[in-house]
Amino acid sequence: MAPSHHFFWLLCLVDLCLGKIFTAPEQITSRRYDFVVFSMIRSDWSCYVVQPGPFAGCVVASRLSENPNVRVLVIEAGVSDNGTDSAVISTPILAGQGAGTVFDWNYTTTHQVGLNGRAFAYPRGFVMGGSSSLNAMIYQRGPRDDFDRLASVSGDPGWTWDNLQEFIFKNEKHVPAWNNRSDAGEYNPRVHGHGPLLSSLTATPWELDRRVMQTAADHSDEYPFNLDLNSGDGLGVGWIQTSVGNSARSSSSSAYLHPALDSRNNIDLLLHTQVTNLISSGSGSKLTGVQVSQNAHEYEFAATKEVILSAGSVGTPQILMLSGVGPKEELQKFGIKSVVDLPDVGRNLQDQAIVGLQWEAKAETLSGLLNDPAAFSAALAQYAINKTGIAAANSVVNSIAFLRLPDGSPLLKGGDPAAGPHAAHFEFAFLASPLGSKQRVELITGNSPQNTFLANDKQVGPTTGNWVSIAIVVQSPTSRGSINITSSSAFSYPTIDPAFYTTAFDIGTAIHAVKAAQEFFSKPAWDGFIGAPFSDATNLDTDAKIEAYVRKWAMSNKHPTSTARMSKNSDKSGVVGPDLLVKGIRGVRVVDASVLPFAVGGFPQAQVYIIAERAAALIKDAWCLN
Ligand SMILES: Cc1cc2nc3c(=O)[nH]c(=O)nc-3n(C[C@H](O)[C@H](O)[C@H](O)COP(=O)(O)OP(=O)(O)OC[C@H]3O[C@@H](n4cnc5c(N)ncnc54)[C@H](O)[C@@H]3O)c2cc1C
Ligand SMILES: *[C@@H]1O[C@H](CO)[C@@H](O)[C@H](O)[C@H]1NC(C)=O
Ligand SMILES: *[C@@H]1O[C@H](CO)[C@@H](O)[C@H](O)[C@H]1NC(C)=O
Ligand SMILES: *[C@@H]1O[C@H](CO)[C@@H](O)[C@H](O)[C@H]1NC(C)=O
Ligand SMILES: *[C@@H]1O[C@H](CO)[C@@H](O)[C@H](O)[C@H]1NC(C)=O
Ligand SMILES: *[C@@H]1O[C@H](CO)[C@@H](O)[C@H](O)[C@H]1NC(C)=O
C-alpha cells in the first residue's frame, strides 16, 4: 500500500476514535487543512456554526446533524461533563450542587434594591449542556396558558400548546426510578413522549409527600390533586418529575449532544473556547460567522447558512451587544459600532425569587442522611459502585403545589400577570430537609458552593433532627431587570440585575404565599408531623414581619428569561421574531431561555427543550433539510 493510503486510513481512524471533540480552535484549523483527505467522505464543511453548544444548542445541533448533508460545529466556552470530577453534576442527589464549582461561570447579581441591598452568586452552567447540567433537574413544563400566550404575543399559532405537541413528545420520555418502584397514579403516561431526555419520579417518597397528597385529598377545592403537572394543566398539587434516568442526570448534553457526537461524523464540538462576537458581512446586513478566543488568540469560523446563538439569558444578550446588536447608545459608551439598534437586547430580564421556611418534622426525612457525613459518604460510595441507593435519585424534593391568588385579590387589581386563568401565581416545593445542604458537595469536591437550589447559603439550617422546608416561588413576577455589558471585551462579566421584588405585586404575592404555606401546614393532615418553625421563622404573624423575612432571605431560583424576547415580526420592540431570527439582520437565530417573553409558569428547562425542538424543525424547513 502506498504511504498516502496509510495516511488516509490513519486519519479516518483517529477521527472516529476522537469522537470529533476539540479543545483548541487550532486543532480544527489543522483538520481543515487535512480536509483534502476527508472531503472524500464528507460534504461541505461549514454549513452551520451552531454556537454555543450548551443547552438548547445541543438540542438543535443534534437534530440538525440528523441530516448527513449538513456540518455542525458546536462551540462551548466551558468544560466537558465527562471528566473524573463530573460526579457532582451527574449524581442525582447532588442536584444543584455544581454551583460554585468548575462547572459554573460564577456570575454575581447587582445589589438588589428589593432584597435589602444584597448581591449574591448567580450560577450558570459553564459546561457541555449549559445550565441543564447544573440545574436542580425539575422537569416541569409550563401550563398550556404559557404557550398560548407565547403564540399570541408572537403572532405565530405554531407556538400554541396544541400545535407544539409533536415537539413536546419528541423531547422527553418517562422512565422508572432506579429501584423500579411503581409510580402508577403519580403521573399520566399519555402526556409523555419518546424523546431522548429521560424523566422520572422519586425513588423514595417520604412521609412528607404522603401528607402533602393527603392535604390535597382533604381539601380538593383549595389544593386539587393534579395527576400530571406536565399535562398542560399546571395547577394544583402533584408529584415532581425530574430529568433523571438510568440513575443519573439527563441533560441536553447526555441526551442529545453525546449521542450525536458518538454516532455521526457531521457534528463537531469545540470546548474551552469562548465566542467573543459575531461577524457581519461588509454591508452589515448579514451575520456570517463567529469569532472565538482561546488563550488570547482569536479565530474565526464561517457559517454558510446560519449562526445559532444558544448562550443563555446572560450570554446571548452579551454576545449580541458585543457584536453591535442592541441598544445603540449603550453600545456607543463602549465604542462598539452599532449594526442593528435593538433597544430590548439585555432588557426585560425576568427571574423568579425563592425563599424558604423550615419546620421541625416528627418523622424521618432526608435530614438524617444530610447531617451524617459518614452515612452520606456511604450512600455516595454505593452509588459509585453500582448506581443504586438514595443517591441515585433527586430525593430532596418530590412534591410541589402550583397555586393562584384568590379571584378578587387586591393584588390582581392592576391586571393578572399569569399567562391565563390556569397558570399559577406562586409555587411551593416541599423539601424533605432543612434548607442548608452545603456539606454534601463539600464531601465530593472539597469546594464550598456559593449557593444551592435549596436555599440561601447564608441561611443556616438546623444540623440535628428531622426537618422539612417549603421553598416559595412567585411564578408570575412583574419585576423586570436587565443585563448590561461592562466593556467591549467578552471577558468582562456583564452586570446582572433581576430586580427582585421591585413591584407591589411581587412582594405582595410572596407575603400571601408565606401565609398560604403556614395555612397549608395547619391542616389536619399534618397533625403529629409538623413541629415548630426554625429560628427567625418563628413569629411570622404579621405582613410586616413576613415581608422583612422575605427581603432578608430570598434569592434567585436561577430562572432568568426574556433578555432577547420574542415578539411579532411587525413589532418594533422585542429582539427575535416568531421564527427566532434576530430582527433587522440576517443569519442569526436565538434558541435559549432569553427568547421567552415572560417568566415560565412551570420550570424553564422543559420550555427551552420544547422551543429548541421546534427551532430545529423551523431551521430544517427554512433550508429544505428534511
Ligand atoms: C443552579 C440552577 C438550578 C436550576 N434548577 C432548575 C430546575 O430544577 N428546573 C428547571 O427547569 N430549570 C432550572 N434551572 C434553569 C435552567 O437550567 C435554565 O433555564 C436552562 O438551562 C436554560 O438556560 P439558558 O437558556 O439561560 O442557557 P444555559 O443552559 O445557561 O446555556 C448557556 C450555555 O452557553 C454557554 N456560553 C455562554 N456564553 C458563551 C460564549 N460567549 N461562548 C461560548 N459559550 C458560551 C454557557 O457555557 C452555557 O453552556 C436552574 C439553573 C441553575 C443554574
Ligand atoms: C468522554 O470520555 C471518554 C473517555 O475518557 C472520551 O473518549 C471522550 O472523548 C469524552 N468526551 C467528551 C465530550 O469529553
Ligand atoms: C468558579 O469558581 C470555582 C471555585 O472557585 C472555580 O473552580 C471555577 O474555575 C470558576 N469558574 C470559572 C468559569 O472561572
Ligand atoms: C429494574 O428493572 C430493570 C429492567 O427490568 C432491571 O434491569 C433492573 O435490574 C431493575 N432494578 C432493580 C433495582 O430492581
Ligand atoms: C449495590 O451495592 C450495594 C452496596 O454494596 C448492595 O447492598 C446492593 O445489593 C447492590 N445492588 C445491586 C443491584 O447490585
Ligand atoms: C443597564 O443600562 C440601563 C440603561 O442605561 C439601566 O437602566 C440599567 O439599570 C442597567 N442595568 C444594569 C444591570 O446595570
Summarize the structure.
The chain has 626 residues and is an alpha/beta fold. The chain is built from 17 helices and 27 strands.
CATH architecture of the domain at 138-249 and 353-476 and 501-553: 2-Layer Sandwich
Number of helices: 17
User: What sort of overall outline do the alpha carbons produce when their principal axes are compared?
Assistant: globular
Low-confidence stretches: 1-19, 30-53, 443-453
Fraction of residues in helix: 25-40%
Alpha-beta classification: alpha/beta
SS elements, strand count? 27
The quaternary state of the protein chains shown equals: single chain
Please characterize this protein's 3D structure:
Residues 1-19, 30-53 and 443-453 have low confidence and may be disordered. Strands 8, 19, 20, 21, 22, 25 and 26 form a seven-stranded antiparallel sheet that branches. The protein has a domain at 138-249 and 353-476 and 501-553: Glucose Oxidase, domain 3. The chain is globular. The chain is 28% helix and 18% strand. 58% of the residues are buried. By secondary structure, the protein is of the alpha/beta class. One 2-acetamido-2-deoxy-beta-D-glucopyranose is lined by residues 179-180. One 2-acetamido-2-deoxy-beta-D-glucopyranose binds next to loops.
